[in-house]
Amino acid sequence: MQCVKMSSKVDELLEETYEALKEFSRRVEVIDYSIRGKKAIDIASSLKRGNIFIKITADAYYLDKDDISELIKSSAAYSSAPLVVSSRIRGREIEDDVVYERGGIYLVKAYTLKSVLSGKEVFILNTCGSYIIKINAEKMKALREELGLSLGELADRVGVSRKAVYEYERGNMHVSIDTALKLIEVLGEEIIEPIDIFKEPSVMSEGIEAPPDVKLEEKIMSDLRRMNFRVIHLKRTPVDIVGRRYDETVSFVVKHTSSSGNFNQKVEEARKIASIARTELIVVKNGEVAGFTP
């Protein structure tokens, strides 16, 4: 019964998120493809400022770490923003107009996503269970100096240590909501920054290349590297391999099994992603290129 309820809630969230994106985006696609029930991308969308890949879950506490890792990798491969849309964390309702950070990725309610899409800015971030406000470190330092305040004087006025103010100005320390409000009283609202939920991930080079699943993938990846492509191997999306070289991106779908029906669906879902990302899609079947979408 719990599984049915969770599935129903996911469908509701999927529809709500799709409708919000449909209103504000250039194009939106539901990605209907999974590997043994696991999938990294539920929705791909093209916005005015870039593309976004979204994972939908009823309760973010139960997010699969591999799904999140794959979502970040696929977003990095296509220079897109990764985002999780959920309604609860560990059974507790997610708050409106708050961005949550989990596993290096942003998480919001569908309501908050629609608010941001409509132009509203969100300033509160929940990270590791604490609520913080992002401060523009350079502006904070410039305004403090403009007012002729020393680190110690500003620290005394907001009730924190001199060391804390120093770290705020270096961007090395989170600022609690209470402290941020006191800083705003002294320095003004210019020091606070909205949370950019459409920010592209910064993925380190190590770990982005997973080993190939089959010999054919190994050959494709090897050939791409010889041509100076950076190779990203994906496991929970319909696209298997992404090659990037400067401004050039190419995607590959490789047939792993003899199930042509499943493979045909895989190709169709991969075409949605390639279309959103505006990249070439090459379909490889039985060791040969079986299709090409420019």
What global shape is seen?
A: elongated
**CATH class call of the largest domain:** Alpha Beta
Tally of structural domains? 3
Number of helical segments with 4 or more residues: 9
Mean pLDDT across all residues, rounded?
88
Rg over C-alpha atoms, rounded to the nearest angstrom: 22 Å
For the biggest sheet, the summary is: 9 strands, mixed
H/E element order: HEEEHEEEEEHEEHHHEHHEEEHEE
Q: What strand line-up does the widest sheet have?
A: 1-2-3-4-8-7-9-10-11
**Which ranges are low-confidence, i.e. pLDDT below 50, for 5 or more consecutive residues?**
1-6
Structural class, please?
A: alpha+beta
> Considering DSSP H and I runs of 4 or more, what fraction of the residues is helical?
25-40%
Report the CATH topology name of the largest domain.
Answer: Trna Endonuclease, Chain: A, domain 1
Give the distance, in angstroms, between the N- and C-terminal Cα atoms: 45 Å
- The name of the CATH architecture of the largest domain is 3-Layer(aba) Sandwich
Description of the molecule:
By secondary structure, the protein is α+β, with helices and mostly antiparallel strands. The protein folds into three domains: 2-130, 3-Layer(aba) Sandwich (Trna Endonuclease, Chain: A, domain 1); 135-191, lambda repressor-like DNA-binding domains (434 Repressor (Amino-terminal Domain)); 215-293, 3-Layer(aba) Sandwich (Trna Endonuclease, Chain: A, domain 1). The chain has nine helices and 16 strands. It has helices at residues 2-24, 65-77, 110-117, 137-146, 151-158, 162-170, 177-187, 215-226, 260-277; strands spanning 27-30, 43-47, 50-56, 81-85, 88-89, 92-93, 98-102, 105-108, 124-127, 130-133, 175-176, 230-233, 241-245, 248-254, 280-285, 288-293. The chain has a nine-stranded mixed sheet with strand order 1-2-3-4-8-7-9-10-11, with helices on both faces. Strands 12-13-14-15-16 form a five-stranded mixed sheet, sandwiched between helices. The protein has a two-stranded antiparallel sheet with strand order 5-6. Strand 14, helix 9 and strand 15 (280-285) form a beta-alpha-beta unit. Helix 1 (2-24) packs parallel to helix 3 and helix 5 (151-158) packs across helix 6 (162-170). The longest helix is centred in the first third of the chain and has 23 residues, at 2-24. It is elongated. Residues 1-6 have low confidence and may be disordered.
